[in-house]
Amino acid sequence: MDMDQAAVFLAGSILTALGFLVVIAAIIIVNNILHKYWKPVRIFTTDSWTAMNPPVRYATPEEVEEIKSKK
Fold first, then answer.
1. Is residue 48 within 8 Å of 42, Cβ to Cβ?
2. How many domains does one find in the chain?
3. Is 26 domain-assigned?
4. Per-residue confidence (pLDDT) for residue 12, from 0 to 100
5. Half-sphere exposure of residue 48: CA atoms within 13 angstroms, side-chain side
6. Residues of the domain holding 59
7. Residue 56 falls inside a structural domain
8. Is 6 among the domain residues?
9. Mean pLDDT of residues grouped by 10 in the chain (71 residues)?
């Protein structure tokens, strides 16, 4: 191995290592962004159906009387 081959090998090794570090840093950043804003997807559970049809709350007789008395 002469000096030119050694220099190319050293430069290639350093650039490859830096490339791996950049890729790992990008994966960590994307993972943190997804973790912050991602909400779990639940399709066939009771949670998923209640989001579309919220539970119905009926007025109590006292609340009905209060609304009628305000009119």
1. yes
2. 1
3. yes
4. 97
5. 7
6. 21-70
7. yes
8. no
9. 94 98 95 82 65 71 90 70
